């Protein structure tokens, strides 16, 4: 039995109000103002200047290619991390999340060393570098979202299939894959949206030849062409809504239920299995962390060889606007925790509703939309809309709220597949034994969903930790986050500032790994 | 439901009480871009002298800042805005209340343009070069040299569609070669192996050999970049590693303007033209003070010079043509 309709109505109210006020209202305001204050140019002319056909086509095809690549390469990694236990598993999995939070400007520096004109693979300013960077950034999404589901797949089902004569591949194809499909689709949807609206990667690595709609929107704003920017933003929004609606409908048809596996994961057995598992993990780590090693090395390179001077130099702020790393770490952690709490709360409530209701396509789509909406447009939307009923425009609270908007989809996409897969038998049994709908939620849904909530919460935290675009826009200057601090160092024209920025980036990597590890630890201890 | 209504009413009541009263404000909000920086002590001096405290709000880059200010025209988020430059000025002029500070008497007169804005600083976008690459060959003397075979594959510029110094450099070429000549110049420049970077950070650190990058010993940067390299060097050095080509530079002037008029806001604008604030500018923002009598730090005296004859352009001309120029440039760069 589903939680009854009345409590669902209450549950849906909080996420809906949150999104209505912090997303729909600012977005509609900015689009309305921009489109009505323009100089009255016809749409066709605006679109022609922006070469919209070319830009839209590029956005779609590179996002599709990035998604297929990321999911294909991510699945084996998710398998290795979620089906086997081995020493250091949690640490390595946490390390895999590091690229996800790195500011594009820093990653671009690493990619320029690896793929620059003088390197062995001179891929800079080609479409390949864009695809590679998207895989690099988003692999962690597949590993965490699909891995979160894979961990709870009952292997007795696979064993049953094997007993009945299916070979490994057939058992995977006919048993595991259908069970994972919702999670794969969820991860794919996120990766698609991220790549479709890709900004920094395309701008910094793709050269002047390539542009996504998001980049085009930003360029129009840079020229103070509000009408052009808003027109493009609307087109992006229509595209994203179409993709999300198709996804939500498809997802609804493919819901599968299973009994949830409990107990410990096995270690890989035999040299063959060990080679495969550790081979996959090793390759993934090289691909994900290799580029970052160049930055770590750079942070220890000083005028006279190898040393810590880039780090010690960080502790001496010389202006009111450069803060010590400790302050920036403190700010980042506070914003990260607040955003995570908000995203888990709002996203958790939303997940219960989506998992229980069969016809909430619009609600599902609404929750995902912030991920596919031009960040700069939402930022300007905040600025013009949020002075009513109280003036929040300059409030520091806007930072975690903006981060939570982008983080909620992660919580929802990791939690819904797991919640929806809980067999109704469990809930019915509890209800038969006299549990109220509320108790069913508390005793059945929450404990099972906690794992997924933690996986989503980890990503939510990471989103907040790495977010730069919106933060630079609304953060108070005396409360810069780590990425904002990195950018401030990079804005100074001196080779030594680059070393400090790299030291700050290395600190960001460490903080990320430690925090994700702590969240995963909580998750392991919780169950 | 009643409880929620009560909370909403309470919030509205509180916000109504905190809305600005007619009394002279003792707290000001200064809106600015994310390159703004001052010494810790400077703003404290202002507060100590006037009893007015200043909250600085940074709203992204200069473009985002101006866009935000235009969008919130009816209900500004700050009292004073600093950081609109001559490439964006015309679109923003209507936002400001006219105010002519008495301190303007000490400002370089060539910077003053409209009573609604007050010039605070200027920076010259110039070619910079890595000195080590030009020990045997002469560095370029200006824009003309850059299309010669001798300087092939040496220059990195920023995309004018996405970068403020990139736009300034494009304007420099238009000011130098005119409407009829700049497109041919750019065709030759790109054919001579010029690299286009998306932003200043990438150009300076990844491409420019003088900034630790690879490939290009000449970069479009600022006249103040060489002293910055000395000031932030890890080990004290007594010679700058980079130098500026002082001809054909494009001058960017940064202005402040009052969004919400008050005596306090005027005092803040006056303070930004005070000697104390002006002399604090070079080492924090790496631009030159607008005041003629502001002393420059020794590094600025030693390692750079203010270009004597920079290229400029009327902000209204820039505003009227900027979009078209950038579109035409993009057609040349991405055929």
Name the chain pair whose interface involves the most residues: A-B, 64 and 70 residues
Assembly type of the chains comes to heterodimer
> What is the CA-based Rg of chain A, rounded?
23 Å
Compressed to H and E, one letter per element, the order of chain B equals HEHEHEHEEHEHEHEHHEHH
User: Main β-sheet of chain A, in a few words?
Assistant: 2 strands, antiparallel
Order of strands, widest sheet of chain A: 1-2
How many strands appear in the DSSP assignment of chain A? 2
Annotated CATH topology of chain A: MetI-like fold
Description of the molecule:
The complex is a heterodimer of chains A (527) and B (335). Chain A is built from 23 helices and two strands. By secondary structure, chain A is mainly alpha-helical. Chain A has a single domain, classed as MetI-like (MetI-like fold). In chain A, a hairpin with a 2-residue loop joins strand 1 and strand 2 (305-306). In chain A, helix 3 (52-83) packs across helix 13 and helix 20 runs antiparallel to helix 23 (495-526). Chain A is globular, with a radius of gyration of 23 Å. In chain A, 54% of the residues are buried. The model of chain A has no long low-confidence stretch (mean pLDDT 85). Chain B starts with a helix and ends with a helix. In chain B, helix 5 (164-191) packs across helix 11 (315-333). Chain B has helices at residues 2-18, 40-50, 62-71, 89-92, 164-191, 200-207, 225-231, 263-272, 275-285, 298-303, 315-333, and strands spanning 27-32, 53-58, 80-85, 118-130, 155-158, 195-197, 218-222, 242-258, 288-289. Chain B folds into two domains: 25-122 and 252-295, D-Maltodextrin-Binding Protein, domain 2 (3-Layer(aba) Sandwich); 124-251 and 303-333, Periplasmic binding protein-like II (D-Maltodextrin-Binding Protein, domain 2, 3-Layer(aba) Sandwich), CATH 3.40.190. Residues 8-22 of chain B have low confidence and may be disordered. With 335 residues, chain B is of the alpha/beta class. Chain B has eleven helices and nine strands. In chain B, strands 1, 2, 3, 4, 5, 6, 7, 8 and 9 form a nine-stranded mixed beta sheet that branches. Chain B is globular. The chains are: A mainly alpha (527), B alpha/beta (335). The interface between A and B is large, with 64 and 70 residues.
């Amino acid at each position: 039995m589903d939680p009854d309709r009345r409590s669902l109505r209450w549950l849906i109210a909080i996420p809906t109000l949150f999104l209505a006020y912090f997303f729909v209202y600012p977005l509609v305001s900015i689009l309305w103002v921009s489109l009505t204050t323009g100089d009255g140019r016809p749409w066709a002319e605006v679109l022609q200047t922006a070469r919209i056909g070319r830009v839209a086509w590029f956005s779609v095809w590179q996002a599709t290619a990035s998604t297929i690549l990321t999911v294909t390469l991510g699945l084996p990694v998710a398998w290795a991390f979620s089906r086997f236990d081995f020493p250091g598993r949690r640490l390595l999995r946490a390390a895999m999340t590091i690229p996800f939070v790195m500011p594009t400007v820093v990653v671009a520096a690493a990619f320029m060393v690896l793929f620059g004109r003088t390197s062995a693979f001179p891929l800079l300013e080609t479409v390949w570098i864009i695809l590679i960077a998207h895989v690099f950034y988003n692999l962690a999404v597949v590993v965490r979202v699909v891995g979160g589901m894979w961990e709870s797949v009952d292997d007795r089902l696979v064993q049953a299939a094997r007993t009945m004569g299916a070979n490994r591949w057939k058992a995977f194809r006919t048993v595991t894959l259908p069970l994972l499909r919702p999670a794969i689709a969820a991860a794919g949807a996120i990766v698609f949206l991220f790549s479709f609206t890709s900004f920094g990667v395309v701008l910094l690595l793709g050269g002047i030849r390539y542009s996504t709609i998001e980049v085009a929107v930003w360029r129009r704003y840079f020229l103070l062409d509000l009408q052009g920017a808003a027109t493009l933003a609307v087109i992006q929004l229509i595209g994203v809504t179409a993709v999300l609606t198709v996804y939500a409908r498809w997802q609804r048809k493919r819901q599968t239920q299973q009994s949830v596996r409990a107990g410990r994961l096995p270690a890989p057995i035999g040299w063959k299995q060990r080679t495969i598992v550790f081979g996959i993990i090793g390759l993934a780590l090289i691909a994900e962390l290799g580029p970052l090693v160049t930055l770590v090395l750079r942070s220890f390179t000083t005028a006279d060889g190898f040393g810590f001077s880039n780090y010690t130099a960080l502790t001496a702020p010389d202006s009111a606007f450069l803060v010590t790393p400790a302050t920036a770490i403190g700010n980042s952690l506070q914003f990260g925790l607040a955003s995570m709490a908000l995203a888990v709360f709002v996203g958790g409530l939303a997940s219960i509703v989506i998992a229980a209701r069969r016809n909430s396509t619009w609600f599902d789509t609404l929750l995902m939309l912030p991920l596919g909406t031009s960040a700069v447009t939402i930022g300007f939307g905040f600025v013009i809309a949020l002075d009513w009923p109280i003036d929040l425009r300059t409030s520091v609270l806007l930072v975690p709220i903006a981060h939570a908007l982008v983080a909620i989809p992660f919580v929802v996409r990791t939690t819904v597949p797991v919640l929806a897969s809980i067999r109704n038998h469990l809930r019915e049994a509890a209800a038969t034994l006299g549990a109220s709908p509320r108790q069913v939620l508390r005793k059945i849904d929450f404990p099972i969903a906690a794992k997924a909530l933690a996986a989503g919460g980890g990503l939510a935290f990471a989103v907040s930790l790495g977010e730069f675009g919106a933060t630079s826009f609304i953060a108070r200057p005396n409360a810069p986050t780590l990425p904002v601090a990195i950018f401030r160092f990079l804005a100074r024209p001196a080779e030594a500032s680059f070393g400090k920025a790299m030291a700050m980036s290395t600190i960001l990597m460490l903080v990320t790994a430690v925090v994700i590890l702590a969240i995963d630890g909580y998750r392991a201890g919780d169950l | 439901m009643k409880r929620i209504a009560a909370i909403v009413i309470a919030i509205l009541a509180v916000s109504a009480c905190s809305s600005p009263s007619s009394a002279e404000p003792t707290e000001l909000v200064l809106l600015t871009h994310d390159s703004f920086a001052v010494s810790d002590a400077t703003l404290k001096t202002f507060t100590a002298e006037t009893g007015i405290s200043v909250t600085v709000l940074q709203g992204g880059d200069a473009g985002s800042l101006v866009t935000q200010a235009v969008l919130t025209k009816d209900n500004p988020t700050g009292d004073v805005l600093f950081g609109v430059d001559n490439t964006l000025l015309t679109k923003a002029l209507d936002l400001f209340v006219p105010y002519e500070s008495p301190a303007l008497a000490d400002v370089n007169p060539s910077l003053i343009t409209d009573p609604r804005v007050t010039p605070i600083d200027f920076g010259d976008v110039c070619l910079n070069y890595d000195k080590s690459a030009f020990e045997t060959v002469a560095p370029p003397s200006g824009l003309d040299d850059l299309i010669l075979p001798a300087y092939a594959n040496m220059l990195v510029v920023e995309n004018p569609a996405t970068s403020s110094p990139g736009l300034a450099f494009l304007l420099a070429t238009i000011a130098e070669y005119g409407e009829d000549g700049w497109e041919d110049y750019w065709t030759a420049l790109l054919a001579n192996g010029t690299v286009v970077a998306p932003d200043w950070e990438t150009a300076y650190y990844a491409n420019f050999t003088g900034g630790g990058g690879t490939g290009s010993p000449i970069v479009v940067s600022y006249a103040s970049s060489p002293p910055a390299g000395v000031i932030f060097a890890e080990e004290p050095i007594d010679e700058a590693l980079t130098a500026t080509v002082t001809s054909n530079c494009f001058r960017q002037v940064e202005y402040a303007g009052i969004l919400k008029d008050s005596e306090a806001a005027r005092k803040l604008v006056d303070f930004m033209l005070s000697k104390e604030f002006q002399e604090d500018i070079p080492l924090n923002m790496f631009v030159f003070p607008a005041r003629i009598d502001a002393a420059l730090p020794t590094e600025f005296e030693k390692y750079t010079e203010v270009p004597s004859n920079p290229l400029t352009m009327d902000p209204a001309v820039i505003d009227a043509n900027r979009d078209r120029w950038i579109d035409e440039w993009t057609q040349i760069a991405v055929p």
